[in-house]
Amino acid sequence: MSGIAIMTSGGDAAGMNPAIKSAVDHARQLGMNPYVVYDGLEGLIDGKIKEATRELTSDMIYRGGTLLRSSRSKRFFDYEFRKQAYEHLKARDINKLIIMGGDGSFRALNDFFNDFEVPFAGIPATIDNDIAGTDYCLGVDTAQNVILDCIDSVRDTARSHHRAFVIETMGRDCGYLAMTTALCSAADICIVPEIPYDLESIYKRLQPAINEEGSCIIAVVAEGTRVAQYLTRWLTERAGMDTRLTVLGHVQRGGSPSARDRLMGTRFATRAVEALHKGDINQIMVYHDGQYGYASLDAVAGQQYSVNPDIINLCRELSC
Ligand SMILES: Nc1ncnc2c1ncn2[C@@H]1O[C@H](COP(=O)(O)OP(=O)(O)OP(=O)(O)O)[C@@H](O)[C@H]1O
Ligand SMILES: O=P(O)(O)OC[C@H]1O[C@](O)(CO)[C@@H](O)[C@@H]1O
């Protein structure tokens, strides 16, 4: 019986646990021996590998984050540590890997394949939704819902005090989370790396709301722009509004996976197991234009992700 190990890497994302459970169950169904690796690439180097018992996955589906834990590993860049990781797999007769994470994690396992020919399948999982070739990454829907709950709550207090709030979302250099949540929360301003902004025209557009009794201003800003503090000062000084900054931070990565993330996790994971079982190696699971498929590492890691132009266009009017 061949062994298959499942691991999570990079930033955690809701949907990883449902995907781990599905991968383990499906591998067992197809006659493979499932293992799990704790602590991502760091754990692979240190041999933190266990057989995946039914008990281990029985309580996973509703839990946020990753119960296998995750890491970013400097050591994995070093051949000697990759060799150490390989020895741990060889000792357990594990000859396939499934990794959930971002393009960095996929590149890591590609290097590992080039060294030791252990094939892998990748599952896109990052709240940033910034992986080329796929319209969806695990964790995005849950993060969007967490952000919307936060913005709705901020709006309650903002309106009570006729205040402006600048709300900074995560996303690294990608504005997807900020754009989609700005649209879904009826924000007044959205500033993202993908769209040039014009503060003076924003000021003119918002003047009626600024002067209206009982109104509030909500600005959603992507962390990648690094302008949240500047915009807060600008709203105070130019627009004359009592303004507060709320940096949502890691709260966006937590929370029980939404129905969408549980389902996407299950679909991606079962396909990843099937790909390896069939011999389709080193593929990244993708969801594009409503279809599930695979993409090569080059198509995913070698390309720049760009947000759907319809979403960008809808947000343009919130940037000027
Ligand atoms: N080019 C590379 N070659 C080998 N290993 C890499 C490479 N890039 C990244 N890695 C390894 O993969 C790990 C995870 O990568 P990274 O920190 O970029 O996260 P990610 O998988 O892209 O996820 P996230 O989007 O959540 O940051 C790194 O800590 C490093 O050990
Ligand atoms: O958890 P860390 O290492 O602080 O990383 C934060 C980064 O990870 C992400 O949450 C996911 O890639 C980004 O949105 C954010 O910039």
Automatic annotation (TrEMBL):
The gene is pfkA1. Its cofactor is Mg(2+). Its EC number is 2.7.1.11. It is found in: Cytoplasm. The keyword Nucleotide-binding applies. InterPro entries: ATP_PFK, ATP_PFK_prok-type, Phosphofructokinase_CS, Phosphofructokinase_dom, PKF_sf. SUPFAM superfamilies: Phosphofructokinase. It comes from Akkermansia biwaensis. Belongs to the phosphofructokinase type A (PFKA) family. Pfam families: PFK. Residues 4-276 form the Phosphofructokinase domain. Pathway: Carbohydrate degradation; glycolysis; D-glyceraldehyde 3-phosphate and glycerone phosphate from D-glucose: step 3/4. The keyword Cytoplasm applies. It catalyses: beta-D-fructose 6-phosphate + ATP = beta-D-fructose 1,6-bisphosphate + ADP + H(+). PROSITE patterns: PHOSPHOFRUCTOKINASE. This is 6-phosphofructokinase. Gene3D superfamilies: 3.40.50.450, Phosphofructokinase domain. Keywords: Allosteric enzyme, ATP-binding, Cytoplasm, Glycolysis, Kinase, Magnesium, Metal-binding, Nucleotide-binding, Transferase. The lineage of its organism: Bacteria, Pseudomonadati, Verrucomicrobiota, Verrucomicrobiia, Verrucomicrobiales.
